[in-house]
Description:
By secondary structure, the protein is of the alpha/beta class. It has 2 domains: 3-125 and 315-373, Medium-chain alcohol dehydrogenases, catalytic domain (Quinone Oxidoreductase, Chain A, domain 1), CATH 3.90.180; 129-286, Rossmann fold (3-Layer(aba) Sandwich), CATH 3.40.50.720. It has 11 helices and 15 strands. The protein has helices spanning 41-44, 47-50, 119-122, 126-139, 168-179, 193-196, 210-223, 242-249, 263-266, 294-310, 328-336, and strands at residues 3-7, 14-18, 28-37, 65-73, 85-89, 102-106, 110-112, 160-163, 185-189, 202-205, 232-235, 256-259, 280-283, 318-320, 344-348. The strands form 3 sheets. Strands 3, 4, 5, 6, 7, 14 and 15 form a 7-stranded mixed beta sheet that branches. A 6-stranded parallel beta sheet has the order 10-9-8-11-12-13, sandwiched between helices. Strands 1-2 form a two-stranded antiparallel ribbon. Helix 4 (126-139) crosses helix 10. The radius of gyration is 21 Å and the shape is globular. The N and C termini lie far apart (45 Å). The relative contact order is 0.17. Keywords: Oxidoreductase. Monomer. It comes from Mytilinidion resinicola. This is GroES-like protein.
Amino acid sequence: MPKQAIVQPSIEAVEIIETPIPTPEDKEVVIKVVVSGANPKDWKYPLWYIFPNIGFACLESVGDDIAGTVHSVGKNVYEFRPGDRVAAFHEAGTANGSFAEYAVAPDWTTFHVPHNVSFEEAATVPLAALTAAIALYVDMKLPVPYNLKQSPEGEKRVPILIYGASSAVGAFAAKFARLSKLSPIIGVAGQGSGFAKTLVDYVVDYRKGEDALVADVEEILAKEGLGSKVPNVFDAISENGSLEATLRFLDPNGGTVSTVLPPRLFAKDKENFKYPSGVIAINSAVPRVHSTHKDFGYLWSRYLGRLLEDGRLKAHPYEVIPGGLNGILTGLKKLKDGNASAVKYVYLIEDTNDVSTLGITGQRENRIESPSSHQLKDFPFLGSK
Length: 385
């Protein structure tokens, strides 16, 4: 019987269980997983905390980046058929995530993987790319790459600063910003600065300290003749001081900022952190592509396939964690310890051993702790403005 990995709430053990191949609902695609991608959310937001009312089945849903071949489709799916090479964004808070031999995704966040793109590359794309897209084009309302007007000589440029430009989400944001002809693109990075330099016009190193970071950004803006404040900021980190730093160079009178985490949960001073009244601030929550923004998820999933096929978009650098499902705990701990720099961890599911060698095996135990004390209990998964 196919296997599935269950990550325990402590992130200290992974249980490998046997589970039947899922049966697709009307608009679902069942995918035989070749490669699963890992994301920081897999250890930061354990779903048994975020969705305590869904029930025990939510323990089976960790892992949202899927790359593999179609096994079966629901009766109302017409774009995919068994055997197709696909990548998909699994719906958070539902069963049958990508840490398994078979996973499920809605057809509107599934897309064909071009033959020039490997499954490893494809597994780096769905969640990160859709997060960047919904931030830039839904929330920040920046010009989309496929509807650009000819720029008259002397037309005002559209600058953007991306905090965390070497992260998967930040890197895709930088790539989209380039396709949208935003300029200049300023990236904030640290250890991954070398990679960030391939994506943006300027790289600022946050490790020099907040004052130096702000000074460097202001120097770039002055050099470009853009004053001293940035009109558009995408914070792909949204913790550990990034919120406070970006507040210092964001235009207080008409600036727009998108964060991937809500400031009220991740600011240093959660009670008192706030943006000026002239700032449009949005927490960009990608799960909206499965609820309030299904059309956006549909259009951009297909657009991602096209961009990958013709080379306008490249996948994120990746590192294969050995052991398949048995390597999930290793990958999650590496993410938690901050070891991922300009790289995305992926798992080759076929490398899973026949016998589980890590964590807890056998029957599952209901170890769900009370969500009342977890810092993410009020996480705004439908976004907030």
